[in-house]
Amino acid sequence: MPAWATTPGAGHQPLPANPFTLGVASGDPWADSVVLWTRLALDPVADTGLGGMPQQRIPVQWQVATDERFRHVVRGGTVTASQDSAHSVHVEVGGLRPGREYYYRFRTQGHLSPTGRTLTTPPRGSMRALTMCFASCSHFGEGYFTAYRRMAEDRPDLMLHLGDYQYEYATKATDVRVVAGPETRTLANYRQRHAQYKTDPDLQLAHATSPWLVVWDDHETENNWADEVPEQPDPAFLDRRAAAFQAYYENMPLRRSARPKGIDMRLYRRFAWGDLATFHMLDTRQYRDDQACGDGTKIDCAERLDPDRTITGVEQERWIMDGFRHSRARWDILGQQVFFSQRDLTAGPQQGFSMDGWDGYRANRDRIAAALGHVRNGVVLTGDVHRHWAGDIKADADQPDSASVGVELVATSVTSTGDGDESTNATQLAENPHLKFYKNRRGYVRTTFSAREMRADFQVLPYVTTPDAPVATAASFVAEDRVSTLHSA
Question: Which domains are assigned to the chain?
Fold first, then answer.
C-alpha cells in the first residue's frame, strides 16, 4: 500500500490551520466493509454552516491499517471534500476481513486527523460475543457529554444512537452551555448545530472508539414532527425537513444508500453480527400518521385504536416482518426511538397513554409484537423518554399475565432534562407490572450478547450539569436464550 502523497492538495490555497476540528467517525459496518467519516472545518460554529472553509474542492487522503501506528496499512485512497456537502467526507471502504479491528485516519495539506478505531462484523456462522452500548437524547445546552466518554471507556464493539443526537432549539437561560445560533430551520442552521456538537471532545472520543449505527427521532428536525406534519402549522416545513435531512447525512457515518433525495431519506436498514445478532434499525418519524387526539398524554383516545394507523408506514412494516420471517439470528434487535411496550401513565382505573409512542399506534405495535414472538429472541431498544426503563413485551398489552414475546430496554438521555433525581416512580411501575426498572439519571445502556444470554447494565451518572462525572451501574438484567423475560442479574 503506497504511503501518503507528498503534496496533497497542491495548487490549492493552503489551509491556515488543521481542519480536522470535528474529529472522525465510522459506522454501518459489514463483514467486509465500513464507512469512514470526517468533515473539514476551520471555524466550526461559523453562522454560514460551512465551517469557515474556502469554496474550493479539497483532496483528502485516507488510510486503514491493522495497527494503531499504521505500520500495516491495508487500504487507502483520496476523496474530495467540497462545499456542496459542507466539506464532509464519506468513504465506504471495502475489501476488509470479517470480524477484525482496524484503525483509520485522514490527511489533507499536511494536516493529520485523529486516529479512529473501527471493526468489521463477524462472518455468517459466527456466534462471537458482542458488547454494544446505546444512548439517546443529547442536548448540548443541558449538560456535558460525559456519558459518551464513559461509553468509549467501555470500548464496545458497536455503539447505537437511537435519536435526538442534536436538538433544534436556540440556547435558553437555564442552559449550562451556550448553544450556537438560532433555532435550526435552514441548512446553514443545521450544519452549524451539528458542527458545534461534533466539537465536543467526549462525543469525538466515542465516535473514534467504535463504529456507530444511528437513527433519528424528532429533534434532529423539530419536536414531534410526523411525516409531512410539523409540530405547529408551518408552510416552510418541508424545506426545513429537507435541510435537516441533508445536514444529518453530511454529519453521520452513513452509506450512500442513505443519501437524501429532497424530503426523503431511507434510514431503516439491517446489519448482522454473524449469526449471533441481527439489528433492524427503524425510522418511526418519516412515515408515521400524525399523533392521535392532538398529541400528548391522553385518556380514552379512541383514535389510537384505528387499525389503519401506522408509525412505521406500510412498506417499513412489511420490511420488518420479512426480516423476522427470514431471520436465523440468535437475537433479533429492533433499534428504534419511542416507547414500544404499553405504558399506562395514569394512576387508577383509567388509562392514559402517550400519543407520541407506539401506544398511539396500537394495531401497528400489536402486529409487530406478534411477529417478534416468532423469532428466537426478540429485543427492542428504545430512547426518547429521558429515563431508564426495562421490561417485558406482552402478547396482549392489556393482560399482564399474557405471554412475553420479547424484552424492551430503554436508555435514558445523555444530557436532556439535566441531572435528574432519585425518584422511584412507584405509581407507574405499579400500573405497569410488565415494567421492571426505572431510573431518572442520565447515562446509557451497556449490553453483552452471547449465544446463551443477553445482559444489560444500566449505567448512570450522578450529574451532567458539570463535567467529568463518574459512572456506576444502577441495575443489571439478563434475558436467557429462548426465555422472553428479564430477570435481575
Answer: 1-120 (2.60.40.380), 123-488 (3.60.21.70)
